Every structure is written in structure tokens, then in C-alpha cells.
Amino acid sequence: xxxxxxxxxxxxxxxxxxxxxxxxxxxxxxxxxxxxxxxxxxxxxxxxxxxxxxxxxxxxxxxxxxxxxxxxxxxxxxxxxxxxxxxxxxxxxxxxxxxxxxxxxxxxxxxxxxxxxxxxxxxxxxxxxxxxxxxxxxxxxxxxxxxxxxxxxxxxxxxxxxxxxxxxxxxxxxxxxxxxxxxxxxxxxxxxxxxxxxxxxxxxxxxxxxxxxxxxxxxxxxxxxxxxxxxxxxxxxxxxxxxxxxxxxxxxxxxxxxxxxxxxxxxxxxxxxxxxxxx
Length: 279
Description:
By secondary structure, the chain is mainly alpha-helical. Helix content is 74%, strand content 0%.
């Protein structure tokens, strides 16, 4: 407060109405100086003469404070603060002089908020990692496709169907990764400026938000689960064989998981509908 007192004193000496008013506030509240309501009133009167509306209000406030203090003495109240029958620290915290502290803290708060907002870039490496994972799925797709083409003459229809379903599964997972990478980056990190007028801009990206992205991800998971469940049902004909990888318990759990995905998607869609109805 010493620096603030020095600057306000200089402003008062220069006949600056705001500086005179705020110096009066210091004397009124007793921050950095001994509390002196008479000096505060004189400073408020000087600020009012310099054209400060706050100065005129300050004079009225001091008059009310002195009147309240006089009434308190007459009624036998021992006031900690001459203005109000409340503890002094509460009065100081609720007093307009705190505006000086707020103005001092504003640059620090702004830098802290900017730092918090910039922390969203920590997600960028995560999306780059998903792009690498998509490259792994491309490698897996090409390898399975070569295997299908090379061994197609010796495969049964069921084997071909299982490999094709596996390829579809890879494609759907790749679509899921694309939605997460592009949609998530646009929603949570930064707008992709190059896509605004791009002719190949995905249609769903024009209205993407956290709710839409969540619903699309749920639908993608249901589609992937459906492919896995279909592969299991096709392979169920070999159930019980020594080389079979399908069991009744496994099929049951896949059905339960798939139904859980469906129920979750319905609940999310219902929740989004309720939220949109409120807005």
C-alpha cells in the first residue's frame, strides 16, 4: 500500500480528481494510513470541487458514517468500525477500495487465464499419436487384403466373408479415428482454418460440437461392435470343435456388451434432446 499511497498523494497534489478521491478512500478505510474520517471528508470535498461525482458520494457516505457512529455512541454500542456495527475487516473487504487491488491483480489473472487456455495444446500430441495408430491400421488392412487376394482360390465362402468383415472392421475403426482426430481437434484445441473453404471439407464437421461428436462416436462404436458380433455369429457354426475360438459364454458376453452400447447411445441421445429442449 505504500506505493499506492505515494502515487495517490502525487495525483492529489496534481489536482487529479480520481487520485484525490482514491486517497480519501484510503483515509476512510485506514489502509496504509491512520484512519481519519475528517481527512477523508476533506479529500472527498476537494474531489467534488474538481468535478468528481464519486467525491460527492464520498462526502455523503462520510456524513452517514459519522451520523451512524454518533447514534452508536448514544445507544451504548462499541463500534469496531466508525461507519458500521460490523468487524473492521469485513468492511474493508466490501469497501470500494478493493478496486485498487483488483486493478493490480488483473494483469496477473489475465496471464494465468491465458496459460490455462493455452494448456489445450497439450492435447495436440495425443491427436498426432492417433494418426500414427491409423497408419498401423492401414498396414494391417493392406496385409489382410494381400492375404485375401493371394489365398482366395483355396478359401471357403465363410472364410472370405470373415476376412471381408475384418477389413470392414478396420475401415470403421479408421473412420472412428478420423472423427476423433479432426472433430476433437476442432472442438477442444483449435479451428482448422484451411478447412473453412476446402472443397473436401466433411459435411458433419460444419455442425460438430462436443454433443454431436459424442453421439457420432457412440454410433461408430455400435457399428464396430455389430461387425464383431456378426463375425462371431458366422463362426458359431464351428462352436464345439477343437479348433473353434467361439464359446457360448463368449457369444453371450458379446451380445451383452453390444446391448450396453445400444443402451448407452440411447441414453446419450435422450440426454442431448433434453439439453437442447432447455435451450
